[in-house]
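Bug #77: duplicate submission created two jobs. Keeping one. Sequence:
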Amino acid sequence: MTRRSAEAPSRLFTGGAGTAAPPARDASEAITARGDHLADEPGDVVLALHEAVRRGRRELIHHLVLECGVSVDARDASGWTALMTAIDLGDVRMAMALLSAGADVRLPCVRRYGCLSCAVVLYAQDPRKQRAEIVRLLVSRGADVHEQHVETGETPLHLAARFESVDAMAALLELGADVSAVDNDDCTVVDVAVDNGSLSVLQWLAERGLTQDFERASSRRRSPLARAVAAGRMDLVRVLVSSHDTRLARSRQAEGSHGAAAHEALVRRYRSEALYCALQTRQFDMIAFLCAHGADAALIGAGVGYKHTSALHIAVKYGCLDIAEFLIEHQRADVNYRNQRGRTPLHVAVIENRGDVAKLLLMHGAEVDAVSASRIGFMAHETMDRMNALELAVWHSHDAIAGLLLQHGACVYDVDCAARRFDKFLGVTDADVHRTLLEQECLLIAARRISVSPGAIASLRRNAVLLPC
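Kept job's structure:
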């Protein structure tokens, strides 16, 4: 989602670069004259209404609307109605006078925000004015506290969160606003607070138990916790995690451990998803924090489309040696755990050519001859079914890792069989590796990888023992 900026309210509602239009040149004279002169120029009459609002001349509203026929909802050059002007000024009595004269609370400004939304944002701009009373007045006169912008789907509560006004949020919630309402980007107010990095709003919501992000599944976007992690905001992450823990504790007290099981599963899922983001962005402190607070390092991929993917698999994939070491030594990560493709972290290290990580895995007991169980290939005519780490190293021409695996006792028998199955291995980049393979009777795989004459192959056959397949 594109983050919406908290632009100046005057720009938000007028659609231009400035503030509301200045009063007409003869507006003050028109108001003073009060007679038929008010109707000489329609534009002056409309602006006279707005000038009356600005000057607090409530007695003129009745005269202009009823006697002079000025529309109470007439707009000035900025597209504001007189009611919007009263809202901007924080003049409760003027707003009441205009509403009594028939002002429409549902009429939007030129940017299609309703009067209530305007009042909320202006309230956020200057809470000292009586805009809280105006918000309550508008709702009492028919403004919809759930009104949504026709293009963005934002509610007044979303706007209050975007402009970081907890006072406006409190007023709206008191009037029945729905904290779980979503805009067109599937964002709640918690999402808005995280996306805008608003610690004060998020803390305010958390203190009232309103951070319900882990209870709402969304296939369209990451959870607020995951996005806070991706943004590197440890302060936001701490607030969300603490809020989750508090809500879980209350759930256990109210429903017992069995009733809270569903909440616990959701929390683990979202924290594991957040751990995935931390691994992608290589945030060591964030990873340690999430692991210490219940993120399941063994099953982090369920929320992002990769079931049975461990944190160690992801750390290996992105070459995060220090993180992989932390997971193995401090989180007891299983170095032989298989992902949904049947691959261990060592298989991933070989495929991604992560030699330093592969060495770490082997030092901590990774099975050098473990065979993958995948039937998923990179191309339709290829298969990587039942290949061990050495086969994968040869398949991908990662000769340095192949040498490392041989040093750790990798068996070459299956590799020879693989060479007979796949006419794949051509070219050479490391003669020592192939010499070692030949010495260990892996003739055919070397012969297929080294472009040699038939006579040379025959010579190799005479001087090496072929393995049965």
